[in-house]
Amino acid sequence: MQPESQASVIELSCVTKAFGPTIANDDISFSVRPGSVHALLGENGAGKSTTMKLLSGLIQPDTGAIKINGTEVNLASPRDAHAVGVQTAFQELTLIPDLSVLENMMLPRGPVGPLGLLRRRTTRQDVQRFFETLDLNVDLNVDAAELDLATRQKIEIARALYRKPKILLLDEPTSALSGSDVEWLGDIIATAKASGVTVLFISHRMPEVRAFCDHMTILRNGKHIRSGAVDSFTDSEVVELIIGRSVESTFPPRPDATETAKRKPVLEVRDLSAGPKLRDVTFDLRPGEILGVAGLQGMGQKNLFSALFGDERVSKGEVRVDGQPIHLSSPADALHPSVAIGLVPEERKTQGLFLKLDGKRNVSLPVISRFHKGPLIDPELETQATAAAFQVVEVDPRAQYMPAGSFSGGNQQKISIAKWLVAQSRILLLFDPTRGIDVGTKHQLYDMMREFTDAGGAILLHSTEIPELEFLSDRVAVLYEGRIDRWLEGDAITEVAMMEAALGGASPITRNAS
Question: In this structure, are 268 and 152 located in the same domain?
Answer without folding.
Answer: no
